[in-house]
Amino acid sequence: MQYAELNNGLKMPIEGYGVFQVDPKETERCVLDALETGYRSLDTAATYGNEEGVGKAIKKSGVAREEIFLTSKLWVADQGYDKAKKAFEKTLDKLGTDYLDLYLIHQPLGDYYGSWRAMEELYKEGKIKAIGVSNFDSTRLVDLIVNNEVVPAVNQIELHPFLQQKEAQKVMQEYGVKVESWGPLAEAKHDILKDEMLKKIADKYNKTVAQVILRWHLEQEIIIIPKSVRKERMEENLDVHDFSLDKADMEEIAALDGKYPRIVDYNIMDIVTGMNSSKTPE
Ligand SMILES: NC(=O)c1ccc[n+]([C@@H]2O[C@H](COP(=O)([O-])OP(=O)(O)OC[C@H]3O[C@@H](n4cnc5c(N)ncnc54)[C@H](OP(=O)(O)O)[C@@H]3O)[C@@H](O)[C@H]2O)c1
Question: NADP-dependent oxidoreductase domain location, by residue (predicted)?
Answer without folding.
Answer: 21-256
